[in-house]
Structure formats: structure tokens, C-alpha cells
Write a structure and sequence with these properties.
Number of strands: 10
Shape: globular
Number of helices: 7
Strand order of the largest sheet: 1-3-6-7-2-8-10-9
Radius of gyration: 20 Å
Helix content: 25-40%
Strand content: 15-25%
Largest sheet: 8 strands, mixed
Distance between the termini: 35 Å
Structural class: alpha/beta
């Protein structure tokens, strides 16, 4: 979990000799059948990324990337589709396939808003601009794979990252009653390398972000990548026009200004 108020929070653990001994004992007690089941489950939960680059770039080499736009969840995906993808000519250049208890991604690029999918688009006029629509849940044990396989393909020098996502307003911690908050509203978090102006107020302590957005921000912080995350707090988790429009202040950001026709 990431806070970026000077620290990256990790869940507490009883790391030490006792844990190592317990793990060793569990490994000794594991039968051949148990081992095969565990390995099969690990294989099933692997994250598979496929690139369809028309240039000379391949999955074995990093390609130039100046901007990476990532929308996570129905409303963030719909916002990028309506205001960014519709403002220029983009082509699908990749996809991610994954499976977990809450999601099974679609194998087709002809997706519906309610489908689970993760697609990558490249701006035809500037192939260094990449956009990802992630409308699927990436489980905690799959997040590292997702990060390594996505960012591992990109050249990180001078890379700018924009992440958009939503969560319930009840997750917002404040001394005020959440019933009086003007939902939906935006809050931002950024890495140390991000020097541009943010489009809303920063997320206050003791609030935190979770899941894939937190993993992406943590990764960018470690790799010294300029990244900003805008989280929309809303009273509905379904596809909602009001929630989509709550992201509009981000259109004035430096990273989107040249990509959007207002």
C-alpha cells in the first residue's frame, strides 16, 4: 500500500526465525499431489501480455514511451475512451490475459463496457504515447507480474505516467461526515519526480490507495518515474456519467493537454 507521505506502507508480519521454520515444516509436509496442485494454480494465475507492434519492437526489447496513460475500472476506462481515444487516431497494440477468482479477461478486442479486459493502445501520430484500459481486477499476487511485464517493455527515461481510478466515498477518511461531501470528487497522489501542477488537492493523511494503482505508484516511486494518480471518490461503483465527468479537471493537465480536443 502506498501513502507517499514520506513512506511506503507494508503490511505487518511476524518475519523471523519462527516464520522460516514454519515455512520449512510446511514444505516438508507438502505431498507430491499438493505440490502439483499448487504449481498448476500458480501457472493458471500467470499474467500473459501480448504485443502486436507493427514496428521492429518485440517483446524482448524495450520500446520508446514518453507517456503512459492508465485507466483502471469502468468509469476511468470510459473517461479515457470518451475524451482521449475519441480525440485522435489510436491502434490496439497489445492485451493482457489473466485469471483470478474475481475476473477472467476477454480474448477479443471488441469488448463491452461490462467486460473484463486489459487493452493497450498506441497513438498513431506519436507511437511513444501508450494508453491502457484496464477493466479487470488484478489480484494482489498478480500485481508484481503485471508491473514487470508492462513496464519491463518500456524505456523508462523521461517517461510520464498518469493513472486514473475510482473508489467508494466511504473509503475516504475525514473528520467530516461523508454524507456532506460533494461526491464525486478527485484527490491526487504523485511521485517525487512529478513536478507539474496537479489538477486537484492532494490526498490527505491517513488516507491510502490500494490494489493496482498503489502498485503502479510504488513502482514509479522506486524507479524514479514521474507519475501522478487521480482517484475519484464516488457513491456508486457502477458505470456512471456523473462519475466519468468528475475526471474532467484532468483534461487541463500537461500530460493530456496535447492529446485532447476540447
Amino acid at each position: 500500500m502506498a501513502t507517499f507521505f514520506g513512506e511506503v506502507v507494508t503490511p505487518p508480519s511476524r518475519a523471523g526465525v519462527d516464520d522460516e521454520e514454519e515455512a520449512a515444516a510446511a514444505e516438508r509436509e507438502e505431498t507430491q499431489e499438493d505440490r502439483e496442485i499448487r504449481q498448476e494454480l500458480e501457472k493458471k494465475r500467470e499474467v500473459h501480455i501480448t504485443w502486436k507492434m507493427t514496428s521492429n519492437a518485440s517483446t524482448d526489447e524495450q520500446f520508446p514511451c514518453s507517456k503512459f496513460l492508465l485507466g483502471i475500472g469502468h468509469n476511468a476506462v470510459a473517461f479515457l475512451s470518451s475524451f482521449v481515444l475519441n480525440s485522435g487516431c489510436w491502434e490496439v497494440v497489445g492485451s493482457i490475459k489473466l485469471w483470478n477468482e474475481w475476473c477472467r479477461t476477454s480474448n477479443t478486442t471488441n469488448v463491452l463496457p461490462t467486460d473484463s479486459f486489459c487493452l493497450f493502445y498506441r497513438l498513431i501520430s506519436d507511437p511513444t504515447v501508450l494508453l491502457c484500459q484496464c477493466n479487470c481486477y488484478v489480484a494482489e499476487d498478480q500485481q508484481f507480474q503485471w508491473l514487470e511485464k508492462v513496464f519491463g517493455c518500456m524505456q523508462k527515461k523521461d517517461l510520464q505516467v498518469l493513472v486514473l481510478s475510482t473508489c467508494s466515498v466511504t473509503d475516504y477518511k475525514t473528520t467530516e461526515s461523508t454524507l456532506t461531501l460533494p461526491s464525486p470528487f478527485l484527490k491526487a497522489l504523485k511521485t517525487n519526480k512529478f513536478k507539474d501542477k496537479v489538477c486537484c488537492s492532494l490526498l490527505e493523511q491517513p488516507n491510502i490507495v490500494r490494489d493496482l494503482p498503489a502498485a503502479v505508484l510504488s513502482y514509479c516511486q522506486v524507479w524514479q518515474i514521474s507519475a501522478v494518480f487521480y482517484q475519484c471518490y464516488t457513491d456508486t461503483i457502477k458505470l456512471d456519467l456523473v462519475t466519468i465527468e468528475a475526471f474532467k479537471p484532468v483534461l487541463s493537465s500537461k500530460i493530456l493537454m496535447s492529446l485532447v480536443k476540447l
